[in-house]
Amino acid sequence: MTIFRFALKRVFGNTTNLIFLTIFPIACIFLPKGEGWPFLPYGYQYFGILILFIGIRLATIILEDRGKGVVKRLAVAPVSHFQYLSQNLLAYSVILILQCAIVVYGGILFGQELYQPSRLFLLFVSFCFASLAIALAWISFYRRKDTSFLLYMSLIFLIVVLGGLIIPIEIFPDLLKRIAVIFPTYWLAEGLNWIVFGENILDFLLINSVLWLYTIVCIIIGSTRKIY
Amino acid sequence: MKQKEPMLFINGWRFLTIGFLIHLWIIGESTNGSFILILLLLIVTSLRWRFALPIWFVLVDVFICFLFTPHTNISYYALALPIFELALKGKWLLSLLIFISLFFAQAASSLLFWFYLQTFFFGVFSFISLKNQVVYRQEADEQRKARYELERMKIDLLEANQSASHQAKLMERNRIASELHDHLGHDLTGASLALQAYEYIQDSREAEKLLQEVKNRLKRSTKNLRDTVHNMTPTTWMGIESLENIAHYFQQLDINLQKSGDMQAVSAHQWGLLEACLKEALTNVARHSNATIVEVDLQVTESIVRLLIQDNGSVEKNSHTGSGLRSLQIRSRSMGGSLSINRKNGFLLVCVIPLEKGG
Fold first, then answer.
1. Does the N terminus or the C terminus of chain A have fewer Cβ atoms within 10 A?
2. Which of B11, B43, B48, B72 would best serve as a mutation to test chain A binding (most A beta carbons within 10 A)?
3. Residue B281: helix, strand or coil by DSSP?
4. How many domains does chain A have?
5. For residue A132, how far is the Cα from the chain centroid?
6. Per-residue pLDDT of chain A (228 residues; tens, 9 = 90+)
């Protein structure tokens, strides 16, 4: 687990990262509740966007490795690509899961009304994995860190709006409502709605399984070893 | 990169089909649950993109589609994926078997039939192009192997040629030594002995006779020496003379030949290469260039011999190196030297060969 430990140290060694990874989630706890929509406090509605950003921020570390030739050196070291990738991803997901825990359980302590906190936590964890996998798949198409990051930012904006995380999906025209289903953010928004109003546990399982399917697809696409 | 081309289009088709299914889902009336069908197929497709899956993995596709048939019509369209995969592996009859599902599809089964059919055709086409690719690659490998063998043989032959010329030189030295020994040696030794004896002889008549004998011997050996040298002098042009000869008899161009250094240091097989270079360069100039003046500069230093040929032509018609120059390059490399060509300002050929120490 050397790579795992190193990945954790590396993420927290950078001050910008540290602020990015701790201040923002904590800030999410204190955002107020909206009137009418969203049904959960703003911080929880928008935490999905933050997860997407953190996902790409962490995944670009792998891209950096590729650019610096670390992957090339690993190819001749007695470490398999699978070990490298899995331990890195494990470290990143541990960080993301910790943040979810901070946000959800910090919210309870602060006194936010979260309806079903443990299920909300589960939903966020599922979305974390999806976000990490999508970021991984995204960076597999790029060589340069900056290009991939900038383009992903615009992509995040697009899928967040079209997925119904910032604007309620009900006000969309019918066609856009159908298209929204393609985006994982739609399923997160659905899940958030279910936390407030949901009754049938099968719906919640469906939402989580879709997020997991997205994770699997993107991991398969993103796990190719690219050596430049 | 080129070898991946058919696979690129095959994978492109797979993902396009997924896109088509998503489109069907968007314009259709299906529930959110049936979107899982598309995601599952997307997983299988990306697995196929990453890994070479065995043929039985098609069953997974069929099973997924079968599972969703009660819920959505899209699963009938999705059956195109297994049809394609089976056709891609050459199992055409099996892929036609899936056409049976047409009888169960409620809506638009005629459209579905044409969709299946063109999927089948593209699958067969991909199968054939992949197969052809393997054949072409094998052929290319064989040809490359044959070419490498030929080149190696060429280098071996050139090396053999070099060693043969070296042997010939040694034998020739031996012959000269024995010739000098046989014809000149005896007479000169005799004359020398007679001269020594001459100092001790008192009788003048006897001395006169001995002196006459010495004169005769010296005369004979001088004649022998002349004959030997004459016999050994080759009638063909050799060395620098042959280069001068080539330059002299090349009428079309104005050739300016300059030389410096000790021409004796260059051995016979090296002269052969220099001669071939000059001939090839002059022929090329006459054939392809509009040049009028050719500068030829031969420099022999202690360790190398350098031949420089430069013309004043301006036509850059023949930009690739022809087989003649290429073979000269190989020959010069086999002698440990190099031959470089530059076409920037007229044609410039520089051939450098290292000299053998203690020839």
1. C
2. B43
3. helix
4. 1
5. 5
6. 889 999 989 888 888 888 878 888 889 888 888 887 788 888 898 899 999 999 998 999 999 888 888 888 888 989 899 999 999 999 999 999 999 999 999 999 988 888 888 999 999 999 999 999 999 999 999 888 889 999 999 999 999 999 988 888 888 998 999 999 999 999 999 999 999 888 899 999 999 999 999 999 999 999 888 777
Return d(Cα A97, Cα B104) in angstroms, integer: 47
Residue A228 placed within a domain = no
CA-nearest residue to A221 within chain B is B46
Structural domain span for residue A178: 2-222
- ipTM of predicted complex: 0.91
The reply to whether residue A217 touches residue B32, judged by beta carbons under 8 angstroms, is no
* Helix boundaries (H) for chain A: 2-13, 15-30, 42-68, 70-76, 81-110, 117-139, 145-162, 174-180, 184-197, 201-222
User: What is the 8-class DSSP label of residue A35?
Assistant: S
Residue A110, domain member (yes or no): yes
Distance CA B14, CA B7 (A): 11
CB neighbourhood size of B4 (10 A): 10
pTM over 0.90: no
- B253 touches A at CB < 8 Å: no
